[in-house]
Description:
The chain is an alpha/beta fold. The chain has helices spanning 13-26, 49-73, 94-105, 127-135, and strands spanning 2-8, 31-40, 80-87, 109-113, 140-143. Helix 1 links the parallel strand 1 (2-8) and strand 2 (31-40). Helix 3 (94-105) runs parallel beside helix 4 (127-135). The longest helix has 25 residues, at 49-73. The chain is globular. The relative contact order is 0.22.
Amino acid sequence: MTKRILVAYDGSEPSKQALLEAKTHAIETLGREIHVVSVVKPSGPFTNAAVSKSIGDEMAKKYERELEAIKEANDDENITIVTHVLVGDLDNNPGEDVCAYAEKEGINMIIVGSRGLGNVKRMFLGSVSNNIVQHATCPVLVMK
């Protein structure tokens, strides 16, 4: 049986830790895949859809290069690395896109970094990680 682990990756230190943790979990199984997924949301002037889409496409290209570098750096570890950049809906939390991808791809576990600000960071997860914890249909590991 293939073990599929999804890492929600945004380039932050917690998401890099999530990737390392995914590799540790993947070692336990012969058939293993790590899906490294980044979600970009189009942004820019809401009155100009073309400008907003262009900014979203540029952000996606940046993440595609970063994810390709991750894939190349892990080529020799005998783990299949699958990378995807999802362009999220402006109105959705990126966690919704991560959960939808996990459901579609038959992911067995999601690993995501937690984020917080100031004194409240011990009390609350970031909005994306919280959304994933609340809506995922598979186990979720949150990295601090």
